[in-house]
Amino acid sequence: MKPFAIAVHGGAGTIARAEMTPAREKSYREALEEAVRRGQDVLQRGGHALDAVETAVRVLEDSPHFNAGRGSVFNADGQHEMDASIMEGTSLRAGAVACVHNVKNPVSLARLVMEKSPHVLLSGMGAFEFAHRHKVMLEDDQYFFDQFRYEQWQRTRGTDTYQLDHSDEDRKYGTVGAVALDQQGGLAAATSTGGMTNKQFQRIGDSPLIGAGTYANNRTCAVSCTGHGESFIRAVAAHEVHARMAHGGLPLVEAVRQVVHEVLPPLEGDGGMIAVDTNGHVVLDFNCTGMYRGYAMGGGAVESAIFR
């Protein structure tokens, strides 16, 4: 059997161990492990990496624990404004959506943009119209309501302050993602987010931007990022990992280490990334207190962790 692997993340940031109760940690890790298992099942059956990452991210979008899909934070207008992207490494096809409302699984809408349109990125009402045309599953506002998220928004409501979803206590940077290598040697990556609490002006972070928060190329690797989006955009962080492998000859672990620990910190780039290369090597690295993460290599056991 040829090598295959999958990894997921549920956000990274300043996670306080003191605030992480055993019950809370168990619920986070169970959700991460379920996402890995669902993606692993796709790969084990000989399925494509693209299907595996979409499946895994949908699990995380459906969980209220993570700031994507159902668990998305409130923007300045009290709405849930979501971004997502997906990319496959064989032909470098990619799709993304930004500032979408009421879409149950933004990652699946991003895939439809890739497969059913000539475009890479659709936003706002245009993306919503595209979703309606393709009969994407929608949910009303109540589906996305979470009391914790609402109280989080109330602390910044009416101000010019935005809040990264993991800038204090046990809150996490708002992103989920997955990367995979399939048995045919194909790579894929996907990322989804609810953005920043109290964000204004339809702000867009790195998650829907190909090369910044998401990248996959069969020459090298697949990458999904989580952290302070503006910094990851300026560093073109996901693509930078590929570039250091393709042009500098670095192995995956060193390329990720350089980007996470040398390139991003001077740009105030707190966060991390998950990545897998063409040989099935998985790297999950971060420059902050913790990152919600899980992985499986081949048909092996599913592993998950939060702290370093």
Short summary:
This protein is α+β, with helices and mostly antiparallel strands and 308 residues long. The chain is built from nine helices and twelve strands. Helix 2 packs antiparallel against helix 3.
Please describe what this structure looks like.
The protein has 308 residues and is of the alpha+beta class. It has a single domain, classed as (Glycosyl)asparaginase (Glutamine Phosphoribosylpyrophosphate, subunit 1, domain 1), CATH 3.60.20.30. Helix content is 32%, strand content 24%. The protein has nine helices and twelve strands. The strands form two sheets. An eight-stranded mixed beta sheet has the order 4-3-2-6-5-1-11-12. About 3% of the residues have low confidence.
Features:
308 residues; alpha+beta; Glutamine Phosphoribosylpyrophosphate, subunit 1, domain 1; 8-stranded mixed beta sheet; 4-stranded antiparallel beta sheet; 32% helix; 24% strand; globular
Secondary structure: elements and pairs:
Blueprint: E1 5-13, H1 22-44, H2 49-62, E2 82-88, E3 94-100, H3 106-116, E4 121-123, H4 124-133, H5 141-144, H6 147-154, E5 176-181, E6 187-193, E7 214-217, E8 221-227, H7 229-235, H8 237-246, H9 252-263, E9 271-277, E10 282-286, E11 290-297, E12 303-307
Parallel strand pairs: 3-4
Antiparallel strand pairs: 1-5, 1-11, 2-3, 2-6, 5-6, 7-8, 8-9, 9-10, 11-12
Helix pairs in contact: 1-2, 2-3, 8-9
Largest sheet: 8 strands, mixed
CATH architecture descriptor name: 4-Layer Sandwich
Shape: globular
CATH topology value = Glutamine Phosphoribosylpyrophosphate, subunit 1, domain 1
The SSE string, one letter per element, is EHHEEHEHHHEEEEHHHEEEE
Number of domains: 1
Supply the CATH class: Alpha Beta
- Tell me the Rg in angstroms: 17 Å
Level of helix content?
25-40%
Low-confidence stretches: 165-173
The CATH superfamily is known as (Glycosyl)asparaginase
Mean pLDDT: 89
Spatial ordering of strands, largest sheet: 4-3-2-6-5-1-11-12
Structure annotation, total helices: 9
